[in-house]
Amino acid sequence: MTHVHSTATRKFTSETRPFLICGEWRSTPVSQAIPCIDPATGNNIATVCGASRDDATAAIEAARRSFDERSWQDKTPAEKAKILWKVADLIEEHADVLAELEVLDGGKLFDAAKNGEVPMAAESFRYYAGWTTKLEGKTSRISSAGNAPFHCYTEYEPVGVVGMILPWNGPLVMAAWKLAPALAAGCSCVVKPAEQTCLSTLYLGELLMLAGVPAGVVNIVPGSGSVVGAAISESPLVDKISFTGSTATGKQLLEAAKGNLKKLTLELGGKSPAIVLADCDMDKTVEGVAAGIFSGAGQVCVAGSRLYVERPIYDEFVQKLVQHTNNIQVGEGFDEANEMGPLISETHLQSVLGFIQEAEKSGACVAAGGTRIKRDGFFMRPTVLVDVDDKMLIATEEVFGPVLVVQAFDDLEDVISRANASDYGLAASVWTSNVGKAHQIIRQIRAGISWVNCHGLPDMAMPFGGFKQSGWGREAGLEGLLQYCEMRSVLVNIAH
Questions:
Q1: Which of 15, 30, 155, 467 has its CA at a distance of 20 to 30 angstroms from the CA of residue 132?
Q2: SS3 per residue for 175-219
Q3: Nearest C-alpha neighbor of 122 from the set 204, 19, 212, 8
Q4: E strand segments, 112-192
Q5: Which positions are catalytic?
Q6: CA distance 308 to 458
Q7: Phi then psi dihedrals of residue 329, to 5 deg
Q8: Neighbouring C-beta atoms of residue 99, cutoff 10 Å
Q9: Rounded to whole angstroms, how far apart are CA atoms 68 and 220?
Q10: Sign of the four-CA dihedral 416, 422, 425, 431
Q11: Which of 408, 117, 390, 163 is nearest to 264 (CA)?
Q12: Is 316 helix (H, G, I), strand (E, B) or coil?
């Protein structure tokens, strides 16, 4: 059945979308048009106004004013909670539109967007709505004052103005993961969506205003990293940067943020290992491992792109994995029969194919996929590579596509060493029926988040972030909220 887009989606994409500054939707004469390309067709489906550096500066100044005037942070915790909860309700009410925008702009599968990412975005605001009334300090007894009577306590304050630089692979949910805790803490925000996927974030801006977030507290300015991103990262009016993207760009932000020593949360690249033991449930593990790499066409930071299979089951496991991979139906996101959508752009597709070609030249063998699908859009076949050496580029660098490298291992010490021999440390998974072995392995893997007998499952209660060059700080959970806070310590001499 052909999917019929909602009236709201058709209207939203038919008009050139302005950007949000201080509660107003604006465009300027110098705005650069950003085309929104449907990855499933290669066609332009909408246009967004790209902000100039002056626009970005105006957004930063609006956020600074709103913070200094305390229009948001002086609301009571209960008032903040009510508004954040309203945002969640509105996201659910507009689920069809948001999911359609995710498909059209980002190549998502409609079912995965509507029943996965949209509810997760709503849950982010509900989860942190609950924290607004529970962000508490503590009282302490001190020894340095002898017997003098002191009342000593700590309290949390919002960090200030936060610049948020979003990735293209999860525009709605990433915006929610950053905005919800920042707003719960009392911050004001400047959001730069990725140029490739602006639409759902701009639509979210409308919902934030409708829910009652004061003008200037959230500003959304699409544009290039060299213009808008640079303005945000260099501005002395911005107190913190929250960035999700490549490790290379994260390193550039360190240099740009040094002027006023901005605080940084960096969720960066990954080359996550999945370790399969011989005692696993093979059929379920094949399905789980495949989902861990091919969901989102592999354009997921935690994708399980390095697979290590214990040697006694290696041949049988690879045979079943290849068969499963070859049966994955690839196509546009509105067709319910499709299990994997397109890559984000022609440029990215060529980059992924280039990794595969380099791997073949280095001696790797394509066991499944490895080629572009000849049709409109940016589609390729899900790919499995074998005969891979640990030092090959395909085994060390983040490909960010539907490409899985499979290798055998002989013992736990061997596989742990190989899994940790990476500059990255974002995620990992272990597949086994032996819980003791699972814990033994997980405790030795250098990764910020790990799963047993599943891969890639997110939850707002579980902090998320990386070790090593996979980043700094955490998102989700209380830890994610505290990234947007400063702690104040107060010592009161009550003898006076």
A1: 467
A2: HHHHHHHHHHHCCEEEEECCCCCCHHHHHHHHHHHHHCCCCCCEE
A3: 204
A4: 139-140, 150-158, 161-165, 188-192
A5: 267, 301
A6: 23
A7: -90, 125
A8: 27
A9: 19
A10: negative
A11: 163
A12: helix
Domain at 273-459, CATH class: alpha beta
What's the sign of the alpha-carbon dihedral 442, 448, 450, 455? Answer: negative
What kind and span of H or E run contains 430? strand 427-431
* Global confidence as pTM: 0.97
Residue ranges covered by each domain of the chain: 7-268+471-489, 273-459
Per CATH, the homologous superfamily of domain 7-268+471-489 is Aldehyde Dehydrogenase; Chain A, domain 1 (3.40.605.10)
Q: Phi and psi for 491 in degrees, rounded to 5?
A: -120, 120
Residue type, 209: M
How far apart are the C-alpha atoms of 184 and 460, rounded to whole Å?
A: 14
Encode the chain (496 residues) as per-residue pLDDT tens digits: 578 899 999 999 999 999 999 999 999 776 789 999 999 999 999 999 999 999 999 999 999 999 999 999 999 999 999 999 999 999 999 999 999 999 999 999 999 999 999 999 999 999 999 999 999 999 999 998 888 899 999 999 999 999 999 999 999 999 999 999 999 999 999 999 999 999 999 999 999 999 999 999 999 999 999 999 999 999 999 999 999 999 999 999 999 999 999 999 999 999 999 999 999 999 999 999 999 999 999 999 999 999 999 999 999 999 999 999 999 999 999 999 999 999 999 999 999 999 999 999 999 999 999 999 999 999 999 999 999 999 999 999 999 999 999 999 999 999 999 999 999 999 999 999 999 999 999 999 999 999 999 999 999 999 999 999 999 999 999 999 999 999 999 999 998 7
Pairing of strands 273-276, 218-220: unpaired
Cα 314 from Cα 398, distance rounded (Å) = 24
Backbone angles phi, psi at 399, to 5 degrees: -85, -35
Compute how many other C-beta atoms are within 10 angstroms of the C-beta atom of residue 480. Answer: 29
Q: Are 60 and 161 in contact (CB under 8 A)?
A: yes
Are 159 and 486 within 8 A, CB to CB?
A: yes
